[in-house]
Structure formats: structure tokens, C-alpha cells
Automatic annotation (TrEMBL):
Organismal lineage: Bacteria, Pseudomonadati, Pseudomonadota, Alphaproteobacteria, Acetobacterales
Secretion signal span: 1-23
Domain of life: Bacteria
Alphabetically ordered keywords of this record: Signal
UniProt-annotated stretches for the region Disordered: 36-65
Keyword Signal applies: yes
Entry protein name: Transporter
Organism from which the protein derives: Bombella favorum
Length: 378
């Protein structure tokens, strides 16, 4: 019997939209060497594999008997182990915030353009109290970012996230359209199957965004330094009534590797006339998401995650105030909830709408972020 027949097709899904879940689970041949059953392949591979294999009876001597043939009864009766219950077919787009595993097929391309609004809704102080006075949450903003991922091998993918932003309000001039720092990341899936899976991330943030000599602070969209990106991600699927539920867990860190020269108004909070250096501290996020199938096409998604940033420092001199400046920002963080609704036209094309809501935090502004995205895989 071919090796592929021993494996079961359970679930294949891409980040923010991937392959649909296959409902075809192939029965393992009940050999005396106890061949494994229940390993996973993506749904498209399962459909190509053809009809479900029929269970095969095995004699004590290891020979097989065709259906309907009379065979010698084995000395010792061998009970066939029942196969795992198949999951129903389910299509996913992916939740609003969760990352995804490396793509399962070489040459595969996944793209997902997002549009997100930022609606200021106060700020959390160092004790976690929310200040809702007007202007406390900063400026309004519109951000457009487009996830792009390419499968180099069946386990290794490269990921890009070009981002544009525009901000205005809060008694400041509009920022104009700005290109942010550019993330570039390699993703390697340790497991041979796509779900369940474990993926490692490693890459860099390239310093492409404006960060110094700004007309006003709202124009700062970069850090001016290279930053390492690394993290780990896992996902798996479970039955959910008559549908499937996908669960993702992750942790990610961004670690700036150097300080940068600062002049005048910068994204580090300095003012006109300042000259010195700034050093951004590490920052990151960790959390989990669930996607609950309502129908094959409709899915409810929910992200629960925490973002954090360590202290950033500034050292220098302001010629206008004639003061030496040596300051640190302190740690900041926020707990966020992100409900969303997914609709998938096919197993390869879908969309999602939802909103990110910061529910608690400290030393950070609070911005409610409605979002919408469309996903496609080729």
C-alpha cells in the first residue's frame, strides 16, 4: 500500500485565509507493525489522492485477503483500530491579528491587503487608569498594509509587510502619506504537516520610515534603526459542534540592535533644536486566537493578545532651551480584544471585518481600530 494512503487529511488553512479543511480521512491499513493513522495533509492534496482507502484484513502471518475471498483464520485475532472522526470541511480567512505558519507548498503566494482606522479613545497612565479627556489618545489615522508571503520550500516561507499611514487632528498638521519601517521575515515550519504545526520566525525591520527632522511629531513612522524580529507560532484544529475550530498561539519580539542620531523633532519625542542619540528598547506581543466555523463559508474570529514595549532612552542637548536631556520613557503595554467576522467565497479567497479594542494597559495611548481585509492565495 502506498505510503500516502496511511496518512489522514485533517485541516489545511493559511494565515488570514488559507486552504479549506478536508473532510477526507483515509483509514490506515491495520498491519501487524501498527502503521500510524491520523497524520495531516492539506485539503487539496487529499482531494488529489482519490477515494478513501478501504480497511484491509491482516492474517497472523502478515498476508492480506481481498474482499469476498475465503481466507484461513488467523491463530490470533487482530482487532482493527477505528480511524479518527473526520473534521467537517471549513474555509478560513484568518483572524485580524494572529500570525500564520509557513506556507505548505513551494511556489505558493499569499496576499492580504488591510485597511485600518485609528480612533483615539484616551490614554492609560502608569497605574493603568484610563484618561478620556479630549486629545489624550493622540491623532486619528488611516493605515494600509499588505501582507505578502511566498513559499520557498514546503517548510520555508518569506514574508513582507509594506505599510503606509496617514494621521491628522489633535491640533497638529496632517502627517501626509508616509511609508513605515518595512518588516522582512523568514518563517520555518518545524512540523511536516500544516495543522497542527509549530513555526519559527526570524527576520528584520528595515529603517525605511521617517523618524527625524520632522515638521511635527505626527510624521514619525519609523525608529531609524535595524531591529531583529523573532518568535514562535503554533496552530491546531478541533471539532466544534458540526464545524471546525482553529486555535493559534504565538509570541513575537522585535529587538533594535543599535542607537540612532536624532535631530530636531523626532519620533522619540524630542523637540526642535535637539541634537543627540536615541535608543529604542525591545517590544513585542503574545496571544491567542480562535476561529469558530458557523457555516463552511462564515467564521467568527476572536483575537486575545498583549502588546508591550520596554523603555526607550534619549540623550542630547537642545540649543533653544540650553538644556542637556537624558530621559527614559518607561515600560508600556496593552491588553487587546479583536472580534471579527470572516466570509470565504472559495477555499482560496476570503475577507474579514472587525475591530481591535484595547481593554486595559499602562503608559500607552488607547486607539480603537476598525479593520477590513481581503485574502487570496495562488
Amino acid at each position: 500500500m502506498k505510503k500516502s494512503v496511511r496518512y489522514a487529511a485533517l485541516l489545511s488553512s493559511l494565515f488570514a485565509g488559507t486552504y479549506s479543511v478536508s473532510a477526507n480521512l483515509y483509514a490506515a491499513d491495520a498491519t501487524t507493525v501498527a502503521a500510524n493513522a491520523g497524520s495531516q495533509t492539506d485539503d487539496k492534496s487529499a482531494k488529489k489522492a482519490g477515494k478513501t482507502a478501504q480497511p484491509v484484513k491482516v492474517s497472523a502471518t502478515g498476508g492480506t485477503a481481498s474482499q469476498g475471498a475465503v481466507t484461513q483464520q488467523p491463530v490470533v485475532s487482530i482487532a482493527e483500530k477505528p480511524g479518527p472522526k473526520p473534521l467537517p470541511e471549513q474555509w478560513y480567512t484568518g483572524s485580524l491579528y494572529s500570525p500564520s505558519p509557513a506556507l505548505p507548498v513551494p511556489g505558493m503566494i499569499a496576499v492580504e491587503p488591510y485597511v485600518a482606522a485609528g480612533l483615539p479613545a484616551g490614554a492609560f497612565d502608569s497605574n493603568g487608569h484610563l484618561n478620556t479627556r479630549k486629545g489624550a489618545g493622540g491623532q486619528h489615522s488611516i493605515t494600509q498594509f499588505s501582507l505578502a508571503k511566498y513559499g520557498i520550500t514546503k517548510n520555508l516561507s518569506i514574508y513582507l509587510l509594506p505599510t503606509y499611514s496617514y494621521s491628522w487632528g489633535n491640533h497638529s498638521k496632517p502627517s501626509g502619506l508616509k511609508f513605515n519601517d518595512l518588516p522582512v521575515e523568514f518563517q520555518y515550519r518545524l512540523t511536516p504537516h500544516y495543522t497542527p504545526s509549530i513555526t519559527l520566525y526570524f527576520g528584520v525591520n528595515t529603517p525605511t520610515g521617517d523618524y527625524k527632522n520632522l515638521a511635527n511629531a505626527s510624521e514619525g513612522v519609523g525608529q531609524g534603526v535595524w531591529a531583529l524580529r523573532y518568535g514562535v507560532h503554533s496552530q491546531f484544529a478541533l471539532p466544534f459542534f458540526k464545524h471546525a475550530m482553529r486555535v493559534r498561539l504565538w509570541a513575537q519580539v522585535r529587538h533594535p540592535v543599535a542607537s540612532t542620531k536624532l535631530h530636531n523633532i523626532t519620533s522619540y519625542g524630542t523637540e526642535k533644536g535637539f541634537t543627540g542619540r536615541g535608543h529604542a528598547g525591545p517590544y513585542g506581543n503574545e496571544g491567542g486566537s480562535v476561529e469558530l466555523g458557523i457555516t463552511k463559508k462564515w467564521v467568527f474570529a476572536l483575537d486575545l493578545y498583549h502588546t508591550w514595549a520596554t523603555s526607550s532612552s534619549v540623550n542630547g542637548y537642545n540649543v533653544y532651551s540650553k538644556k542637556y536631556i537624558n530621559s527614559r520613557t518607561g515600560w508600556s503595554g496593552a491588553f487587546n480584544v479583536g472580534p471579527g467576522i470572516e466570509y470565504n467565497w472559495t477555499s482560496s479567497i476570503g475577507g474579514i471585518v472587525g475591530v481591535i479594542l484595547p481593554v486595559a494597559g499602562h503608559n500607552t495611548s488607547r486607539s480603537i481600530s476598525p479593520q477590513a481585509a481581503v485574502f487570496a492565495v495562488f
